[in-house]
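Quick one, tokens below. Sequence please?
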């Protein structure tokens, strides 16, 4: 069972591994963002949402039958998590109502009662297999990083984090045992370590399972071993390990990105895999039998990667070029987040842009995941500005390598990437030939004031406080601050009903462009932050047409005196082999809809802007 595009909407689809057949299970009017399967496999739960992300959980037979309320008596809200006990006799859902999280318990298909409420965004992680413990996720660097509620008497235990020790809860051990064990990841000392917790005990780190970049982990089906996915430099690997002693074994998977995975009852690991020029595929690895990875297609031509050395570290970028020889006009395609990263994974936008004659670079600027805690956190709350420094360094590097030329380089970004586009066009107007921003954050103070609780939490982590507490940081990071410096040209697309990046701020921003006679084009859509397939196609077609008008492929533009590509240092002596552009090194990006603000949390639907 998976979520897949059906007629432009995300729906729940079953897949028969033996025959390859697909069957559409849902016909949700506005698509499905969250779903789960009851432990016995008999019923599917899916969240029936309106365009604003508010709705109800539905339950329907897996084989055939109508959908009905999954739990009666639960009012409409936002999906903040779902969990079942081992037998599927109990279900818990967390639903967001404004600035509050509420937890409801009931028998699937029957009435539910309110268990508890919590202020803010405190999503449900999991219910223990015996139905006695409920794990809730706070901020990983906060004093209530994890709260465990004992359902028998309402007592709680709290696992604390701080800025030196972040804690994520993942899931309880499966099976019918009566000694619930919670799987945890702890970030401390520059490492991510798999740990476990039991009621009445401290967190127990398993030091042989410590990694230098982000991980997520799952209990393996035997309830004894742990399956770990590590993301490093834009690629994934899978490991399987006992919790006591011994090094983990690396499972044979082809180079690229693992987008999703699940374990079958027989022990096989089903995963969705992709590589930069290869659309997602379903693959299976059997830890007991497989010794060699599934064969991967050969690396496509015109694909490579670049490492750009700076005093604070090396900036990693994926590069795709059109056929022929450069220099080419170039588009930086910026990922959202910022706590995401571009990966060695298929992105159709890259194919369309290179097909139109542009080189495309995807840079994992500071704040990106997959490069360790320091790269993710240590930029001094200089939100946006630190990322622009990284983009500028990569831009100059690629000019020095002859891949592109000054005056022929543009920016394109969605969501938080769109925010960086608007910020760059004001902070560094001489450096970018065009800005293409879709669903951007146009005014950070407005965005924080009107955002969902999860997004406010992410903003406050980034900035180190609220706009009232650190106003100078928000002002320095705000595209509105630099409006008088914007010269364009700019393409802006936004949804009138975007709940993550408010349309109110975009309207004020484009009105200011109009008042200043800045060349620009605006496209308005509906359908929320991500929109449906038809809206996405309309927006990208308009974006590509605008780019071709103001930055036509094959037409060279002389650099102005201000485009002096400062700091013309090429690769430094300590740059590793492959630091320059090498076509045919393996590459990609995860089209992750919801992002991963740390190790994956179960059904965390409202993660930072992506």
């Amino acid at each position: 069972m998976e979520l897949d595009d059906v007629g432009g909407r995300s729906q729940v689809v079953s897949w028969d591994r033996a025959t390859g057949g697909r069957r559409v299970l849902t016909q949700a009017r506005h698509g499905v963002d969250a779903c789960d399967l009851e432990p016995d496999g008999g019923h599917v739960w899916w969240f029936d949402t309106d365009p604003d992300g508010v709705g109800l959980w539905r339950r329907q037979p897996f084989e055939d039958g109508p959908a009905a309320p999954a739990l009666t008596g639960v009012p409409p809200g936002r999906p903040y998590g779902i969990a079942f006990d081992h037998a599927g006799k109990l279900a818990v859902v967390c639903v967001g109502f404004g600035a509050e999280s509420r937890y409801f318990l009931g028998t699937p298909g029957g009435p539910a009662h309110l268990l508890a409420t919590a202020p803010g965004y405190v999503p449900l992680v999991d219910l223990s297999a015996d139905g006695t413990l409920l794990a809730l996720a706070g901020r990983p660097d906060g004093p209530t990083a994890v709260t465990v509620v004992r359902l028998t008497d309402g007592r709680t235990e709290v696992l604390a984090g701080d800025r030196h020790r972040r804690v994520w809860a993942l899931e309880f051990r499966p099976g019918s045992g009566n000694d619930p064990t919670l799987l945890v990841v702890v970030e401390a000392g520059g490492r991510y370590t798999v740990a476990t917790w039991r009621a009445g005990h401290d967190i127990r780190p398993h030091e042989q399972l410590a990694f230098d970049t982000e991980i997520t982990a799952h209990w393996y089906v035997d309830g004894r071993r742990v399956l770990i996915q590590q993301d490093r430099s834009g690629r994934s690997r899978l490991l399987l390990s006992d919790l006591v002693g011994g090094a983990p074994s690396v499972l044979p998977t082809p180079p690229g990105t693992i987008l999703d995975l699940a374990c079958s009852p027989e022990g096989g690991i089903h995963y969705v895999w992709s590589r930069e020029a290869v659309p997602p595929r379903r693959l299976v690895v059997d830890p007991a039998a497989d010794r060699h990875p599934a064969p991967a297609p050969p690396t496509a031509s015109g694909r490579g990667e670049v490492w750009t050395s700076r005093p604070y570290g090396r900036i990693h970028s994926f590069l795709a070029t059109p056929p022929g020889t450069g220099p080419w006009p170039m588009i930086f395609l910026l990922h959202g987040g910022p706590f995401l990263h571009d990966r060695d994974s298929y992105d159709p936008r890259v194919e369309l842009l290179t097909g139109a004659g542009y080189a495309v670079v995807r840079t994992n600027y500071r704040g990106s995941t997959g490069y360790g805690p320091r790269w993710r956190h240590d930029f001094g709350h200089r939100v946006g500005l630190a990322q622009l420094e990284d983009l500028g360094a990569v831009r100059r590097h690629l000019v020095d390598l002859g891949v592109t030329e000054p005056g022929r380089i543009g920016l394109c970004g969605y969501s938080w990437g769109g925010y960086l586009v608007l910020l760059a066009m004001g902070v560094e107007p001489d450096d970018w030939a065009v800005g293409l921003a879709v669903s951007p954050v146009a005014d950070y103070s407005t965005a924080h004031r009107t955002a969902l609780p999860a997004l406010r939490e992410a903003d406050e982590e980034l900035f180190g406080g609220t706009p009232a507490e650190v106003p100078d940081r928000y002002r320095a990071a705000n595209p509105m601050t630099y409006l008088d410096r914007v010269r364009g040209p700019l393409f802006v697309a936004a949804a009138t009903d975007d709940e993550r990046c408010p349309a109110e701020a975009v309207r004020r921003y484009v009105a200011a462009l109009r008042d200043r006679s800045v060349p620009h084009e605006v496209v308005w859509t509906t359908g929320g932050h991500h929109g449906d397939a038809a809206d996405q196609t309309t927006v990208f077609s308009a974006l590509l047409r605008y780019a071709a008008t103001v930055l036509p492929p094959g037409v060279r533009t002389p650099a102005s005196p201000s485009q002096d590509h400062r700091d013309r240092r090429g690769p430094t002596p300590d740059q590793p082999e492959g630091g320059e552009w090498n076509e045919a090194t393996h590459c990609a990006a995860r089209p992750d809809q919801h992002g991963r603000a740390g190790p994956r949390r179960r059904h965390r639907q409202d993660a930072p802007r992506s």
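The CA atoms of residues 35 and 46 lie 4 Å apart. The longest helix spans residues 533-550.
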